[in-house]
Amino acid sequence: MAERAIPATLRVAVIGTGRMGADHVRRIQSVISGARVSAVVDVDAERAKAVAARVDGCTAYTDPVVALAAADVDAVLVASPGPAHEAALLAAFAHDLPVLCEKPLTPDAASALRVLEAEQALGHRRVQVGFMRRYDAEYVKLKALLETGQLGRPLMLHNRHRNVASPPFFTSSMLISDSVAHEVDATRWLLGHEITAVTVLRPTPSVNAPDALLDPQFVVLETDGGALSDVEIFVNCGFGYQVQAEVVCERGTARVGDGHGLVTHMAGRWGGTIAQDFTERFADAYDREIQAWVDATRRGEVTGPSTWDGYAAAAVCEAGVRALEEGGRAEVALVERPALYG
Ligand SMILES: NC(=O)C1=CN([C@@H]2O[C@H](COP(=O)(O)OP(=O)(O)OC[C@H]3O[C@@H](n4cnc5c(N)ncnc54)[C@H](O)[C@@H]3O)[C@@H](O)[C@H]2O)C=CC1
Ligand SMILES: O=C1[C@@H](O)[C@H](O)[C@@H](O)[C@H](O)[C@H]1O
Protein backbone atom coordinates (compact mmCIF):
# COMPACT_ATOMS: atom_id res chain seq x y z
CA MET A 1 0.00 0.00 0.00
CA ALA A 2 1.34 3.49 -0.91
CA GLU A 3 2.64 5.64 1.95
CA ARG A 4 -0.18 7.92 3.11
CA ALA A 5 0.48 11.70 3.36
CA ILE A 6 -0.36 12.99 6.86
CA PRO A 7 -2.11 16.41 6.83
CA ALA A 8 -1.39 19.11 9.43
CA THR A 9 -4.86 18.58 10.90
CA LEU A 10 -5.85 14.91 11.14
CA ARG A 11 -9.33 14.04 9.92
CA VAL A 12 -10.71 11.55 12.43
CA ALA A 13 -13.67 9.19 12.04
CA VAL A 14 -15.28 8.35 15.40
CA ILE A 15 -17.09 5.00 15.42
CA GLY A 16 -19.69 4.79 18.18
CA THR A 17 -21.17 8.08 19.41
CA GLY A 18 -22.49 6.99 22.82
CA ARG A 19 -21.07 8.18 26.12
CA MET A 20 -17.35 7.78 25.37
CA GLY A 21 -17.57 8.45 21.62
CA ALA A 22 -19.49 11.71 22.04
CA ASP A 23 -17.05 12.79 24.78
CA HIS A 24 -14.07 12.05 22.52
CA VAL A 25 -15.71 14.06 19.69
CA ARG A 26 -15.99 17.03 22.08
CA ARG A 27 -12.39 16.48 23.19
CA ILE A 28 -11.02 16.38 19.64
CA GLN A 29 -13.02 19.44 18.57
CA SER A 30 -12.61 21.61 21.69
CA VAL A 31 -9.82 20.43 23.97
CA ILE A 32 -6.86 18.96 22.09
CA SER A 33 -4.97 20.19 19.02
CA GLY A 34 -3.99 18.78 15.64
CA ALA A 35 -7.20 16.95 14.70
CA ARG A 36 -10.83 17.43 13.78
CA VAL A 37 -13.74 15.02 13.46
CA SER A 38 -14.66 14.53 9.77
CA ALA A 39 -17.04 11.57 10.18
CA VAL A 40 -19.06 9.88 12.90
CA VAL A 41 -20.55 6.40 12.68
CA ASP A 42 -23.28 4.85 14.82
CA VAL A 43 -25.77 2.05 14.16
CA ASP A 44 -28.23 4.48 15.77
CA ALA A 45 -28.62 6.91 12.82
CA GLU A 46 -30.31 9.62 14.88
CA ARG A 47 -27.52 9.59 17.46
CA ALA A 48 -24.84 9.86 14.75
CA LYS A 49 -26.71 12.71 13.06
CA ALA A 50 -27.16 14.59 16.34
CA VAL A 51 -23.42 14.41 17.08
CA ALA A 52 -22.44 15.29 13.48
CA ALA A 53 -24.75 18.32 13.58
CA ARG A 54 -22.58 19.83 16.34
CA VAL A 55 -19.39 19.65 14.23
CA ASP A 56 -18.64 21.69 11.07
CA GLY A 57 -17.85 19.52 8.05
CA CYS A 58 -18.72 16.22 9.77
CA THR A 59 -20.74 13.52 7.98
CA ALA A 60 -22.86 10.91 9.79
CA TYR A 61 -22.81 7.23 8.78
CA THR A 62 -24.35 4.04 10.16
CA ASP A 63 -21.81 1.51 8.82
CA PRO A 64 -18.08 1.70 9.63
CA VAL A 65 -17.07 -0.09 6.40
CA VAL A 66 -19.07 2.35 4.25
CA ALA A 67 -17.81 5.34 6.25
CA LEU A 68 -14.12 4.47 5.95
CA ALA A 69 -14.48 3.80 2.20
CA ALA A 70 -16.41 7.01 1.53
CA ALA A 71 -15.14 9.66 3.93
CA ASP A 72 -11.89 11.64 3.91
CA VAL A 73 -10.30 10.08 6.98
CA ASP A 74 -6.69 9.93 8.24
CA ALA A 75 -7.34 8.13 11.55
CA VAL A 76 -10.09 6.23 13.35
CA LEU A 77 -11.28 6.35 16.97
CA VAL A 78 -13.31 3.26 17.92
CA ALA A 79 -15.79 3.81 20.77
CA SER A 80 -18.48 1.27 19.91
CA PRO A 81 -19.16 -1.58 22.39
CA GLY A 82 -16.37 -4.20 22.73
CA PRO A 83 -18.07 -6.91 20.59
CA ALA A 84 -18.09 -4.45 17.62
CA HIS A 85 -14.37 -3.59 17.87
CA GLU A 86 -12.97 -6.43 15.75
CA ALA A 87 -15.03 -5.46 12.67
CA ALA A 88 -14.16 -1.77 13.11
CA LEU A 89 -10.44 -2.53 13.52
CA LEU A 90 -10.36 -4.77 10.44
CA ALA A 91 -12.18 -2.05 8.43
CA ALA A 92 -9.50 0.46 9.51
CA PHE A 93 -6.70 -2.01 8.65
CA ALA A 94 -8.21 -2.43 5.14
CA HIS A 95 -7.28 1.26 4.59
CA ASP A 96 -4.07 1.01 6.67
CA LEU A 97 -5.42 3.68 9.03
CA PRO A 98 -4.12 4.36 12.57
CA VAL A 99 -6.67 3.59 15.29
CA LEU A 100 -7.31 4.59 18.88
CA CYS A 101 -9.46 1.69 20.11
CA GLU A 102 -11.30 2.09 23.41
CA LYS A 103 -10.80 -0.82 25.81
CA PRO A 104 -11.32 -3.70 25.55
CA LEU A 105 -9.43 -4.38 22.30
CA THR A 106 -12.03 -7.14 21.82
CA PRO A 107 -14.06 -9.11 24.40
CA ASP A 108 -12.20 -12.45 24.17
CA ALA A 109 -8.73 -13.84 23.45
CA ALA A 110 -9.62 -15.54 20.13
CA SER A 111 -10.91 -12.34 18.51
CA ALA A 112 -8.02 -10.33 20.00
CA LEU A 113 -5.61 -12.83 18.45
CA ARG A 114 -7.28 -12.38 15.04
CA VAL A 115 -6.71 -8.61 15.35
CA LEU A 116 -3.09 -9.22 16.43
CA GLU A 117 -2.53 -11.40 13.36
CA ALA A 118 -4.21 -8.89 11.04
CA GLU A 119 -1.97 -6.08 12.33
CA GLN A 120 1.12 -8.24 11.87
CA ALA A 121 0.02 -8.89 8.28
CA LEU A 122 0.14 -5.09 7.74
CA GLY A 123 3.75 -5.26 8.92
CA HIS A 124 3.53 -2.29 11.29
CA ARG A 125 1.68 -1.24 14.43
CA ARG A 126 -1.53 0.65 13.82
CA VAL A 127 -3.42 0.46 17.16
CA GLN A 128 -3.28 2.32 20.47
CA VAL A 129 -5.66 0.74 23.01
CA GLY A 130 -7.61 3.07 25.34
CA PHE A 131 -6.10 2.01 28.65
CA MET A 132 -6.11 5.52 30.08
CA ARG A 133 -4.52 4.73 33.48
CA ARG A 134 -1.21 5.01 31.55
CA TYR A 135 -1.97 8.72 30.92
CA ASP A 136 -3.16 9.60 34.46
CA ALA A 137 -0.68 12.01 36.11
CA GLU A 138 -0.55 10.02 39.38
CA TYR A 139 -0.12 6.63 37.70
CA VAL A 140 2.60 8.12 35.46
CA LYS A 141 4.47 9.34 38.58
CA LEU A 142 4.09 5.92 40.23
CA LYS A 143 5.50 4.18 37.16
CA ALA A 144 8.43 6.65 37.03
CA LEU A 145 9.17 6.08 40.75
CA LEU A 146 9.17 2.30 40.30
CA GLU A 147 11.57 2.66 37.38
CA THR A 148 14.11 4.51 39.54
CA GLY A 149 14.46 1.34 41.62
CA GLN A 150 14.50 3.40 44.88
CA LEU A 151 11.70 1.31 46.40
CA GLY A 152 13.30 -1.99 45.45
CA ARG A 153 11.51 -4.93 43.87
CA PRO A 154 7.69 -4.74 43.77
CA LEU A 155 6.15 -7.55 45.83
CA MET A 156 2.45 -6.71 45.83
CA LEU A 157 0.06 -4.27 44.17
CA HIS A 158 -3.26 -3.54 45.88
CA ASN A 159 -5.95 -2.03 43.63
CA ARG A 160 -9.43 -0.73 44.41
CA HIS A 161 -11.90 0.00 41.62
CA ARG A 162 -15.32 1.27 42.72
CA ASN A 163 -18.19 2.59 40.63
CA VAL A 164 -21.26 4.35 42.07
CA ALA A 165 -23.69 2.00 40.27
CA SER A 166 -23.51 -0.50 37.43
CA PRO A 167 -25.44 0.05 34.17
CA PRO A 168 -28.54 -2.15 33.67
CA PHE A 169 -26.84 -4.45 31.13
CA PHE A 170 -23.92 -5.30 33.48
CA THR A 171 -23.29 -9.00 34.19
CA SER A 172 -21.09 -10.64 36.84
CA SER A 173 -18.42 -11.50 34.26
CA MET A 174 -18.34 -7.85 33.09
CA LEU A 175 -16.95 -6.85 36.50
CA ILE A 176 -13.85 -8.58 35.23
CA SER A 177 -13.91 -8.13 31.43
CA ASP A 178 -15.14 -4.52 31.46
CA SER A 179 -13.83 -3.11 34.74
CA VAL A 180 -10.89 -5.18 36.08
CA ALA A 181 -9.52 -5.06 32.50
CA HIS A 182 -8.06 -1.67 33.51
CA GLU A 183 -6.19 -3.13 36.54
CA VAL A 184 -4.99 -6.03 34.41
CA ASP A 185 -3.33 -3.51 32.10
CA ALA A 186 -2.14 -1.31 34.99
CA THR A 187 -0.53 -4.35 36.66
CA ARG A 188 1.27 -5.42 33.46
CA TRP A 189 2.39 -1.85 32.75
CA LEU A 190 3.46 -0.82 36.27
CA LEU A 191 5.27 -4.06 37.11
CA GLY A 192 6.47 -4.97 33.60
CA HIS A 193 5.34 -8.55 34.22
CA GLU A 194 2.94 -10.84 32.34
CA ILE A 195 0.02 -12.24 34.33
CA THR A 196 0.09 -16.02 34.57
CA ALA A 197 -2.97 -16.96 36.68
CA VAL A 198 -6.16 -15.42 38.05
CA THR A 199 -8.16 -16.31 41.19
CA VAL A 200 -11.57 -14.79 41.81
CA LEU A 201 -13.20 -14.79 45.26
CA ARG A 202 -16.85 -13.88 45.74
CA PRO A 203 -18.01 -12.35 49.02
CA THR A 204 -21.75 -12.34 49.75
CA PRO A 205 -23.09 -9.71 47.30
CA SER A 206 -23.98 -6.25 48.55
CA VAL A 207 -27.71 -5.67 49.15
CA ASN A 208 -27.30 -2.81 46.66
CA ALA A 209 -26.19 -5.12 43.83
CA PRO A 210 -28.96 -5.62 41.24
CA ASP A 211 -30.52 -9.11 41.11
CA ALA A 212 -28.00 -11.94 40.85
CA LEU A 213 -25.03 -9.62 40.21
CA LEU A 214 -21.94 -10.93 42.02
CA ASP A 215 -20.75 -7.59 43.32
CA PRO A 216 -18.21 -7.04 44.82
CA GLN A 217 -15.51 -9.51 43.74
CA PHE A 218 -11.91 -9.93 44.87
CA VAL A 219 -9.44 -10.83 42.14
CA VAL A 220 -5.84 -12.01 42.60
CA LEU A 221 -3.44 -11.81 39.67
CA GLU A 222 -0.17 -13.81 39.77
CA THR A 223 2.70 -12.56 37.62
CA ASP A 224 5.72 -14.14 35.97
CA GLY A 225 7.90 -11.76 38.01
CA GLY A 226 6.70 -13.36 41.24
CA ALA A 227 4.51 -10.42 42.34
CA LEU A 228 0.84 -10.56 43.34
CA SER A 229 -1.71 -7.93 42.34
CA ASP A 230 -5.13 -7.90 43.99
CA VAL A 231 -8.19 -5.98 42.84
CA GLU A 232 -11.30 -5.15 44.83
CA ILE A 233 -13.95 -4.51 42.19
CA PHE A 234 -17.18 -3.06 43.55
CA VAL A 235 -19.44 -1.54 40.91
CA ASN A 236 -22.40 -0.59 43.14
CA CYS A 237 -20.56 1.04 46.03
CA GLY A 238 -23.06 3.90 45.99
CA PHE A 239 -20.83 6.70 47.25
CA GLY A 240 -18.42 7.58 44.47
CA TYR A 241 -15.96 6.57 41.75
CA GLN A 242 -12.66 5.47 43.25
CA VAL A 243 -9.61 4.02 41.54
CA GLN A 244 -6.65 3.51 43.83
CA ALA A 245 -3.41 1.58 43.69
CA GLU A 246 -0.72 0.90 46.28
CA VAL A 247 2.50 -0.86 45.39
CA VAL A 248 4.41 -2.60 48.17
CA CYS A 249 8.12 -3.01 47.45
CA GLU A 250 11.09 -4.39 49.36
CA ARG A 251 12.14 -0.93 50.65
CA GLY A 252 8.86 1.00 50.78
CA THR A 253 5.39 1.57 49.39
CA ALA A 254 3.72 4.13 47.14
CA ARG A 255 0.03 4.77 46.48
CA VAL A 256 -2.12 6.82 44.12
CA GLY A 257 -5.79 7.70 43.78
CA ASP A 258 -6.59 8.98 47.27
CA GLY A 259 -8.21 12.06 45.74
CA HIS A 260 -6.65 14.52 48.18
CA GLY A 261 -6.69 17.30 45.58
CA LEU A 262 -8.75 19.80 47.59
CA VAL A 263 -9.18 19.43 51.33
CA THR A 264 -11.50 21.83 53.17
CA HIS A 265 -11.83 22.56 56.89
CA MET A 266 -15.20 24.04 57.79
CA ALA A 267 -17.84 23.97 60.52
CA GLY A 268 -15.90 21.56 62.71
CA ARG A 269 -15.23 19.03 59.93
CA TRP A 270 -12.57 18.45 57.32
CA GLY A 271 -12.74 16.61 54.01
CA GLY A 272 -12.94 16.66 50.24
CA THR A 273 -15.20 15.44 47.46
CA ILE A 274 -15.23 12.09 45.65
CA ALA A 275 -15.53 11.98 41.85
CA GLN A 276 -18.79 10.39 40.71
CA ASP A 277 -17.65 8.74 37.50
CA PHE A 278 -14.75 8.02 35.18
CA THR A 279 -15.40 11.02 32.90
CA GLU A 280 -14.67 13.23 35.94
CA ARG A 281 -11.86 11.22 37.61
CA PHE A 282 -9.97 10.54 34.37
CA ALA A 283 -10.88 13.68 32.33
CA ASP A 284 -7.24 14.84 32.19
CA ALA A 285 -5.99 11.32 31.41
CA TYR A 286 -8.39 11.00 28.45
CA ASP A 287 -7.22 14.43 27.18
CA ARG A 288 -3.56 13.36 27.38
CA GLU A 289 -4.33 9.95 25.87
CA ILE A 290 -6.07 11.38 22.78
CA GLN A 291 -3.51 14.20 22.39
CA ALA A 292 -0.67 11.64 22.56
CA TRP A 293 -2.42 9.53 19.91
CA VAL A 294 -2.91 12.53 17.58
CA ASP A 295 0.67 13.73 18.09
CA ALA A 296 2.14 10.29 17.44
CA THR A 297 -0.06 9.80 14.37
CA ARG A 298 1.05 13.15 12.95
CA ARG A 299 4.67 12.04 13.42
CA GLY A 300 3.84 8.80 11.59
CA GLU A 301 4.32 6.78 14.80
CA VAL A 302 2.20 4.52 17.00
CA THR A 303 2.78 4.68 20.75
CA GLY A 304 0.96 3.68 23.96
CA PRO A 305 -0.77 0.41 24.84
CA SER A 306 -0.44 -1.91 21.85
CA THR A 307 -2.50 -4.65 20.26
CA TRP A 308 -0.32 -7.07 22.24
CA ASP A 309 -1.36 -5.30 25.45
CA GLY A 310 -5.00 -5.54 24.34
CA TYR A 311 -4.62 -9.23 23.52
CA ALA A 312 -2.86 -10.01 26.83
CA ALA A 313 -5.59 -8.17 28.78
CA ALA A 314 -8.30 -10.09 26.89
CA ALA A 315 -6.60 -13.43 27.67
CA VAL A 316 -6.20 -12.56 31.37
CA CYS A 317 -9.83 -11.40 31.62
CA GLU A 318 -11.00 -14.57 29.89
CA ALA A 319 -9.13 -16.62 32.51
CA GLY A 320 -10.67 -14.39 35.20
CA VAL A 321 -14.19 -15.07 33.93
CA ARG A 322 -13.38 -18.81 33.93
CA ALA A 323 -12.17 -18.55 37.53
CA LEU A 324 -15.33 -16.66 38.46
CA GLU A 325 -17.65 -19.17 36.81
CA GLU A 326 -15.85 -22.39 37.76
CA GLY A 327 -14.51 -21.21 41.11
CA GLY A 328 -10.89 -20.95 42.17
CA ARG A 329 -7.86 -20.29 40.01
CA ALA A 330 -7.42 -20.27 36.22
CA GLU A 331 -4.11 -20.15 34.35
CA VAL A 332 -3.52 -17.69 31.51
CA ALA A 333 -2.30 -19.02 28.16
CA LEU A 334 -0.64 -16.45 25.87
CA VAL A 335 0.80 -17.06 22.40
CA GLU A 336 4.47 -16.17 21.97
CA ARG A 337 4.93 -12.39 21.83
CA PRO A 338 5.51 -11.43 18.16
CA ALA A 339 8.63 -9.42 17.26
CA LEU A 340 6.46 -6.47 16.14
CA TYR A 341 5.63 -5.80 19.81
CA GLY A 342 9.22 -5.68 21.07
N1 LIG B 1 -11.63 4.08 29.01
C1 LIG B 1 -12.68 4.13 29.80
O1 LIG B 1 -12.58 4.53 30.96
C2 LIG B 1 -14.02 3.74 29.31
C3 LIG B 1 -14.12 3.01 28.17
N2 LIG B 1 -15.34 2.60 27.73
C4 LIG B 1 -15.35 1.80 26.51
O2 LIG B 1 -15.82 2.65 25.44
C5 LIG B 1 -16.60 1.89 24.52
C6 LIG B 1 -17.97 2.54 24.40
O3 LIG B 1 -18.58 2.57 25.67
P1 LIG B 1 -19.77 3.60 26.00
O4 LIG B 1 -19.56 4.88 25.28
O5 LIG B 1 -19.90 3.61 27.47
O6 LIG B 1 -21.03 2.84 25.35
P2 LIG B 1 -22.39 3.43 24.84
O7 LIG B 1 -23.37 2.32 24.87
O8 LIG B 1 -22.72 4.70 25.57
O9 LIG B 1 -22.10 3.84 23.32
C7 LIG B 1 -21.82 2.90 22.33
C8 LIG B 1 -22.36 3.46 21.00
O10 LIG B 1 -21.94 2.58 19.95
C9 LIG B 1 -23.03 2.38 19.07
N3 LIG B 1 -22.81 1.13 18.36
C10 LIG B 1 -23.16 -0.14 18.71
N4 LIG B 1 -22.73 -1.03 17.78
C11 LIG B 1 -22.08 -0.30 16.84
C12 LIG B 1 -21.43 -0.65 15.63
N5 LIG B 1 -21.33 -1.91 15.23
N6 LIG B 1 -20.90 0.36 14.88
C13 LIG B 1 -21.02 1.65 15.27
N7 LIG B 1 -21.63 2.03 16.41
C14 LIG B 1 -22.15 1.06 17.18
C15 LIG B 1 -24.26 2.39 19.97
O11 LIG B 1 -25.43 2.69 19.23
C16 LIG B 1 -23.89 3.51 20.94
O12 LIG B 1 -24.28 4.79 20.48
C17 LIG B 1 -16.61 0.45 25.07
O13 LIG B 1 -15.58 -0.24 24.45
C18 LIG B 1 -16.32 0.65 26.56
O14 LIG B 1 -15.72 -0.48 27.16
C19 LIG B 1 -16.49 2.93 28.38
C20 LIG B 1 -16.45 3.67 29.52
C21 LIG B 1 -15.20 4.15 30.09
O1 LIG C 1 -14.04 1.45 31.36
C1 LIG C 1 -14.90 1.71 32.17
C2 LIG C 1 -16.26 1.12 32.11
O2 LIG C 1 -16.43 0.43 30.88
C3 LIG C 1 -16.38 0.15 33.27
O3 LIG C 1 -17.68 -0.40 33.29
C4 LIG C 1 -16.13 0.89 34.58
O4 LIG C 1 -16.18 0.00 35.68
C5 LIG C 1 -14.76 1.54 34.56
O5 LIG C 1 -14.57 2.24 35.77
C6 LIG C 1 -14.64 2.48 33.39
O6 LIG C 1 -13.37 3.07 33.36
CATH class of the largest domain: Alpha Beta
Q: What is the CA-atom radius of gyration, in angstroms? A: 20 Å
CATH architecture of the largest domain: 2-Layer Sandwich
Strand arrangement across the biggest beta sheet: 12-11-7-10-9-8-15
What is the H/E string? EHEHEHEHEHEHEHEEEEEEEHHHE
List the domain count as a whole number.
Answer: 2
Which kinds of small molecule does this entry bind, naming each only once? Answer: 1,4-dihydronicotinamide adenine dinucleotide, (2R,3S,4s,5R,6S)-2,3,4,5,6-pentahydroxycyclohexanone
User: Whole-number average pLDDT?
Assistant: 96
Q: From the helix content, strand content and strand pairing, which structural class follows?
A: alpha/beta
Q: Sheet bearing the most strands, described? A: 7 strands, mixed
Which segments are poorly predicted (pLDDT under 50) over 5 or more consecutive residues? Answer: none
CATH topology of the largest domain: Dihydrodipicolinate Reductase, domain 2
Task: Compute the number of helices.
Answer: 10
Describe the model.
With 342 residues, this protein is α/β, with parallel strands linked by helices. The protein folds into two domains: 10-133 and 285-305, Rossmann fold (3-Layer(aba) Sandwich); 137-280 and 313-341, Dihydrodipicolinate Reductase, domain 2 (2-Layer Sandwich). Helices cover 35% and strands 23% of the residues. It is built from ten helices and 15 strands. It has helices spanning 19-30, 45-52, 64-70, 85-94, 109-122, 137-148, 174-191, 278-281, 283-298, 307-326; strands at residues 10-15, 35-41, 59-61, 75-78, 99-102, 127-130, 154-162, 195-201, 217-223, 228-234, 242-249, 253-256, 264-266, 269-271, 328-331. The strands form three sheets. It has a seven-stranded mixed sheet with strand order 12-11-7-10-9-8-15, with helices on one face. Helix 5 packs antiparallel against helix 10 (307-326) and helix 7 packs across helix 10. It is globular, with a radius of gyration of 20 Å. It starts with 9 loop residues before the first strand and ends in an 11-residue tail after the last strand. The relative contact order is 0.16. The mean pLDDT is 96. Bound molecules: 1,4-dihydronicotinamide adenine dinucleotide and (2R,3S,4s,5R,6S)-2,3,4,5,6-pentahydroxycyclohexanone. (2R,3S,4s,5R,6S)-2,3,4,5,6-pentahydroxycyclohexanone (ISE) is lined by residues 163, 178-179, 182, 235, 278.
